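hi! just following up on the protien thing from before. the input was this:
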Amino acid sequence: MYYQSASQLAQHILNKEVNSKELVQGFIKRREALNPKINAIVQYNDDAALASAAQLDNQLSRGELQGPLHGVPVTVKESFNMLGFKTTVNYPPLKTYLPNEESILVTRLKEAGAVIIGKTNVPTLLADSQCFGPLYPRCNNPYNLERVPGGSTGGGAAAVAAGMTSFEIGSDIGGSIRNPAHYCGLFGLKPTQNGHAEDGHVPPMPNNDTGYLDMNSTGPLARTMADI
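and the predicted 3d structure came back as:
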């Protein structure tokens, strides 16, 4: 289950071979077993994810399909705003920052039926091809804990590679999707420049809109090209 693609998991749910709540419970158990050494997922969404999964299972029992990701557990990079969760980008001045609005990408994932099970590790201010900083434990490559997973979407890549999530939404200016995809043996896509200040992503910094945005893109890391 853990190494199947998001597309395959969505089909299993649609065929009622497994339900979303069972998948979420399974990914939580796998995270509990593996994450203490990898440190890929740094904020957990267990209670809300289980509640969302149960609701989606009820919808499907009535023949109501939320979208192409109905019931599929996913993660998002810590830099995307999500209501009820901090967006710190591993930077001490933002260690208590709670956004008052949600990223459009998080909203679109939910509208597509995805169940967001957590937020993933990043280097300070997303400015490294490794994945460490003062607020979160260093993220390690799941294939070799003495190696780095790349960055800045390093936690997301490590989580996908370790089977702790089905896929990840990350961001990339100079390699922050492509670099960790390479380090962790995944597929990653930096689309044509599509990042905007109003995406609900940090940077730009909250309340002052400072931060480099040229060449910024948001995109996926996944186990298969079909998912991309």
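The helical segments are 6-14, 20-38, 46-61, 104-111, 154-161, 178-184.
The first helix runs from residue 6 to 14.
cheers
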